Amino acid sequence: MSLHHKATVLCHPVKMKSKYSEYYNQTLITAYYAYAKNMTPHEMEEHIKQKKQLTSLNIAIVVLCTIIILENLLVLIAVWRNKKFHSAMFFFIGNLAFSDLLAGSAYIANIFLSGSKTFKLVPVQWFIREGTVFIALAASVFSLLAIAIERYIAITKVKVYGSTKTCRMFLLIGACWVTSFLLGGLPIIGWNCIYNLPECSTVLPLYSKKYILFVVTIFSLILLSIVILYVRIYLIVRSSHQEATNSQAYSLLKTVTIVLGVFIICWLPAFTILLLDTSCKIQSCWILSKGNIFFGFATLNSALNPVIYTLRSKDMRKEFLRVLCCWGVLQSGRPSDRCLVPLKSSSSLEHCTNKHEHQMTPIMTDCTTCV
Question: According to its UniProt record, what is one Pfam family this protein matches (predicted)?
């Protein structure tokens, strides 16, 4: 029986059992990939042989993901070691770093389970492989939204820092992960295209096109929400009559431009590919075969987030150097006890935390630059 015939048979759910019974079918992935790629059995065999070795692109992505893991691990260690960073805003930054670290780890695992190894997986393993990446990347994006929400509330609400602040922090972080697991787990729960081949994605052959469209819509709404929140922050700062308002506003505008610019640059190509995937018929969009390039580029966002959200803090930069010093990377002959010298100066973000810890009026100029 040909691969095309096997795949076509799967389109008739009346004659088949529940789709969950196919989660351990070892021939299903090969059949669905053959259908998605519009290949004959012989072409599929040649395709599998060509996938036995890592490509230069995959090697480059592995290197990038290794950098993502190391730099986000550095952020987490810095936040954990220094009590000055045990505040709500730095915990949000730590949560973002943790989600980005998982994104890098998940993508490395995805690459080493791809290629010819893809066709040795059963569907449940394939769903876990792809779902883990979706969960990690979604958590990274939701963390960006949580930071935007926190910054907006910080400049519009009175008495920001207190028990209410801590409760809101845990609620936002918890909602970030619950939503990410739910979003990434929908296909394995049942929102997939098993027994419904015409609805199958070309880029992710076991995923439903409707699910992919849903994910793209969610991320687009998140992007829109971040834009709206930061625009409102900018307008509030701009309308303030306090001293140095103009310089603070320009500083905020610069930070917002960097954040949104990197987000859009990294994710827009991937969103475009996924949107094309939901509308293109089999073999009608050749660019879909290059999807790995665009997803790898989207992963770059996880490498840049620590730069944007932490290196603007002078204390965080100093803590990075101290951690690297203690690891022996930057000692340069200096005694190791110098690595443990307490920090003397405070960054603008730390000033915001301390200065307004018991303030009863909305935070305006000082904290609005601390994105």
Answer: 7tm_1
CB neighbour class for 279 (10 Å; exposed up to 12, middle 13-18, buried from 19): exposed
Is 114 in contact with 49 (CB distance < 8 Å)?
no
Report the number of distinct structural domains present in the chain: 1
> Residue 341: inside a domain, yes or no?
no
pLDDT tens, residue by residue, 260-280: 788 788 888 888 888 888 888
For residue 347, being part of any structural domain is answered with no
Query: Is residue 367 included in any domain, yes or no?
Result: no
Confidence tier at 156 by pLDDT (50, 70, 90): confident
User: Which CATH number goes with the domain that contains 161?
Assistant: 1.20.1070.10
Angle between helices 56-81 and 291-310 (to 10 degrees): 20
Range of the domain at 40: 3-314
Distance CA 210, CA 218 (A): 12
Whole-model pTM: value is 0.77
356 assigned to some structural domain? no
**Angle value at C-alpha 189, between 127 and 220, nearest 5 degrees:** 80
For 326-349, write each residue's pLDDT tens digit: 665 555 445 445 554 444 444 444
Measured distance CA(242)–CA(246) in Å, rounded: 9
pLDDT at 182: 94
